[in-house]
Design a protein that fits this description.
The protein is built from 10 helices and 20 strands. The chain is of the alpha+beta class and 335 residues long. It has 3 domains: 91 residues, Alpha-Beta Plaits, CATH 3.30.70.20; 116 residues, Alpha-Beta Plaits (2-Layer Sandwich), CATH 3.30.70; 82 residues, Alpha-Beta Plaits (2-Layer Sandwich). Strand 17 and strand 18 form a beta hairpin.
Length: 335
Amino acid sequence: MFNVERDGSEIRKLRYDDDICVSCGICADVCPTSSLRLGPIVPIARGLIEMDAISVNSNTCVLCGLCSVACPFGALSLFIDGVNIKDGGNYPYWDIKSEVCEDDCIYCGRCSVACPRDAIIFERNLPKRQDLVRGEISIDDEKCIYCGFCAELCPPGAIDISNVPTSSVDVVNNSIEVDTTKCVYCGICKRICPEDAITEICSTCMLQDQIDVPEITGDTIISKKSCVNCSWCAEICPVDAIDITKPFAGNLGLVETEESVCKGDSCHACQDVCSCNAIEIVEGKAVTNLTFCNLCGACIKACPQSIRALTRTSMKLNNINSEAWNECLNKILND
């Protein structure tokens, strides 16, 4: 993380958050003074060196804010007198989103498992098991021989047996207990008991009209700070409760020649830097799944063979009112 600050008639401060940065280099591409530099992103991604993906020359940076508005992921922020220019309304902004419809979400949690950036905060509240089943169970201590069959076969692990030696090696204190908060009154213990020591009655079916319909509550929140709009969550959601808008439209693929071919198995540099988990090695070649790719371009910068071709046809960056800024920001698209 770095901060560049300059005082004057107004206080300007440029803040960079390496934890958010995806190493795409867009900021360096648009910088009008070439003050930003993309570092060795492959060794950084592989954990071989510890340094920021982006560095800045504070002597040449004019704190114009172009890099801040150009970054689709919010890794750079320019503050003027303590106010982020993205909140002012006069600067360009990205019209992208990653939202969960709470009314449709069923709290299955699949999105949080699939997210490559751990950007989804997920919490699920299930009803208590004992509120969903009804029944009775008891164990006759005089008949029980403490063989342990019931405890070993109990599906929810509701039966606990202890065999504790006393001061005499010939005497053992036995105990058996049923945790009714876990018991589902399935009857397996009753059927397996060799001494008929267990009495069990399940009344769930007979009393189902008296049992409240189970309610599942929770929260599924996408952290805007960590999300890179890859759409893994939206694609895997079984009820289409997540809406993702990507920053770019376009295409990405390989352009191989006789001299330069993909060395996916031995290289996989593109795969290592991809923040979207969108690249896999198939038959020795790096293949990008465009469903999950956000076209950030980090893989282009990482490829040692320079055979990855990125085409951005449009971007969701709006409110570009300056012709000079428009010229610089259009460098994000294909030259």
